[in-house]
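Case study.
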Amino acid sequence: MIILDAPIQQDKIIALLNAYDQDGVSFQFDHKKGIQLHFTTNQSDLATAAKVAKAAIKAEPWGGVLYFQARVAK
Amino acid sequence: MNGLIQWLEKHVVPIATKIGSVRWLIALRDAFISTMPATMAGSVAVLLNAFLRDIPTQYGWTGFVKAMQPVVGVNSQVWTGTLAVIGLIFAFTWGYNLAKQYDVEPLTGGIVTLGTFLMSVSQTFTITLTKALPKAAEKILTASGAAVDGKTVTGWGYFNFNAHFGAAGLFTAMILGGLAGAIYIILTKRNITIKMPESVPPAISKAFAGIIPAIVAWYVIGIITYVFTDATGTAIIDWIGKTIQTPLLSLSQGYGAVLLLTILVQVFWFFGIHGTNVLGPVLDSIWLTAQLANVNAAAKGDALPYLWTRSDFDMYAWLGGAGSTLLLLIAIFVFSRRDDERTVAKLAIAPGIFNINEPTMFGLPIVLNPIYVIPFILAPVVMVTVAYFAINWHLVAPVSIQMTWVMPPFLNSFLATSLDWRAPVLQLVNAVIGFIIYAPFVIASNKLDPEKLA
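After joint prediction, the assembly is written out as follows.
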């Protein structure tokens, strides 16, 4: 499980990552807790998956200005 | 809170997104960031010379200064190749990043804007003497490239390195480089280029593709600078410096501008928008330019031209990161009875010392946390006010050395002000103020159930 601490644009983030399927990496929204968005991923390397998720969001026109973090759930 | 978030997403985020996705602004921000190796190397050289020359000279340690002369000389060389020519360096990074944003060959873009910048700088001089020079002196001048005609000495190819290549040239580089860069990009995008067969190596093909757009860009700027200088007798760089750069930087020195920027950044951060990213072009083009002018003035032993610069925000308003969250962490250690907050504080204190505050911002969290919205915005506002007037009343020296933003508090201000002990004292005063502002809200948060906040 990876967590995205993202206070705004949560719907867009969920939609983006749910639809993400590149280089064999995919995400599935699991649940929300406050500003935390929890996603499952098909990757065993969760740290890399978190980086991929962050890069995907940052690549979007609306994502470049967001202040958020992507991390591995403990 | 949900209603507020929806309102933000509908009205504020699109504006921030628009600002944050303007390619010119991104290029401008990245162009300044690209100069960082040069600005930091130059700052280190200025700082070392402060230790080895300026401060010992104040104490009359002439023997030490003399012994250190070779090291001072090396530092001066480093400064000459970096900060002293930061306008020239920026002229290249600006075109490079602008071209990169528009997916055209960036190297040519950088070359175009660099050449443009040099066109804006006066390169001739004429001196009228009161009496003719002796033959020996005339011979020396002629050998160095000048022409002597009776009492008149003229020269060509003499750039005024001291007056134009430093921070004073930044706005000219931005404006004329922007125009030249736009011409280069538009013509390249419209395929007004020399096309080579596919068998030609890419490096050669790219260079050929840039020939026509670059020539047009340079000729347009060449005509502008020539006509301007011919008509006014003034180099365009001097005119831009006098009529645009100096007045704009003077505006940035007002309390209103400093306060407005501080509030905007805080509000953006609190609502999950990258404040310094969105406002980076303003911060860098205005206050970083002022800072670079100060560092260069310090290196030359001149009076510092500006009181408030880019690093002042980091040092006095954002101790431990935006919102001065380091002070919140200390307040949590002292007052918090909540295990969750104390755990986050323990994890966040080490990065916080280096002004990295993501663990605090998202761990507590502060972002969108109604408990901390007031101190998160209020603390920097009060702190920036105290620092602004302390510096304006000359109680603390202005910044004269550039510091990287990850330099820990107290050390950063001490070094940035060329070892003015009053700067860390001012930071300490601000730290106490910020701590006092945060404390009641930490105490209030003791009464809240963390589960309900989530």
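Observations recorded in class. Residues 2-72 of chain A form one domain. Chain A touches chain B at residues 5-9, 33-36, 61-62, 64-69 (CB under 8 Å). We will return to this complex in the next lecture.
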